[in-house]
Amino acid sequence: MPHAKAAANVGIIVDNLLQQHLLKTALMHFGFKVILTTDPSKMNDNPELAAEVDAWVVDIIDEDAEHLWLDDLFDGDVPVLFGMGEAPQRSCENYPRWEKRLFAKMKELLAGYPLAIADEDTLNKLESAVTKNNPFPLPAMFNNIELGLPAEHIWVLGASLGGPDAVKEFLDALPQGLPVGFIYAQHIDNRFQQALIQTLGRHAGITMVPYKEGSQINTGEVMLAPVEHEFSFDFEGRAVSKNEAWPGPYGPSVDQVMLNVAQHFGNRARYILFSGMGNDGAEAAVKISQQASTIWAQNSESCANSSMPDSVVATGHVSYIGSPRQLASQLVNYLQTQWMK
């Protein structure tokens, strides 16, 4: 069994340079350590590295060539993912779906290795951190807003690795009393959901609340999306469990949270993608963009890992990019503009 913090070593054997590049980029986005990328004709050139590979990803474009070495590879002890098919270009709308399918297969292949999500160490460090940001002042137009009522403006916050730090910085910078409610979809071990609620709500002017069947998204609150099961909303905007696991490799699925929120709240919903590995949120961004929607993302420089927000930015549907504090300032300004319309 690998060490709890070890990333799986992956070797890529592909007879096409572009396919090699796309596979390597996608696997690194999901936190795998690609230690060997080679053409089949050169796979025996690095026996030392090959011996350290935990899983092989193999794709053959030239089907007419002889590949006797494949029999040896499949007969070995190292698992092999074969035949993912030609990867679409990163600019293609199908790329996020292909990338997610690749990760789901790799997760199944390397079940003994941990996913790159927020864990107990992350929360312990966050708990001991000193809050540096003072909240922005509350605009005078919001002084008489009554909190705790169903929110008119719904914002989805999606995050994975590095997300708790970024989201905490964002929430700590927001003034209490904004006319907005949040849904926070964070890839995290389900054992630490309550700890996440306590840690993020410690200094924020926004109240963190757990998912509760039948609850609504209220002004001044952040509801943490459950890890264990998917949820949607009834015609009154009340949370309803679907009693089934989230689709895809992560719980909660940021893609599915965004799609379910968009289905019920339409153009009342907006979205911010924070630090994380992988591309969760990118597929939904493409679909949601068919409506008049607002999608923002954390900038690469301030992320612990920028793969997730970068993937959403790459779709071309993100209208603002900034650090967590800049995103908070932008939200305050945005709400003022919307309020005056």
Automatic annotation (TrEMBL):
Give the UniProt record's GO annotations in the biological process aspect: chemotaxis
The entry's protein name is: protein-glutamate methylesterase
Tell me the GO molecular function terms.
phosphorelay response regulator activity; protein-glutamate methylesterase activity
**A Pfam family of this chain:** CheB_methylest
Give the EC number(s) under which this enzyme is classified.
3.1.1.61
Entries under InterPro entries matching the protein: CheB_C (IPR035909), Sig_transdc_resp-reg_Me-estase (IPR000673)
Question: Which residue numbers delimit the CheB-type methylesterase domain?
Answer: 148-338
**Highest rank taxon of the organism:** Bacteria
Q: Which PROSITE patterns match?
A: CHEB (PS50122)
List GO terms (cellular component aspect): cytoplasm
- Primary enzyme class: hydrolase
- Record's catalysed reaction(s): [protein]-L-glutamate 5-O-methyl ester + H2O = L-glutamyl-[protein] + methanol + H(+)
Q: Which PANTHER family match?
A: PROTEIN-GLUTAMATE METHYLESTERASE/PROTEIN-GLUTAMINE GLUTAMINASE, PROTEIN-GLUTAMATE METHYLESTERASE_PROTEIN-GLUTAMINE GLUTAMINASE
Per UniProt, the keywords (alphabetical) are: Chemotaxis, Hydrolase
Q: Which organism is it from?
A: Oleispira antarctica RB-8
Q: Where is the active site?
A: 160, 187, 280
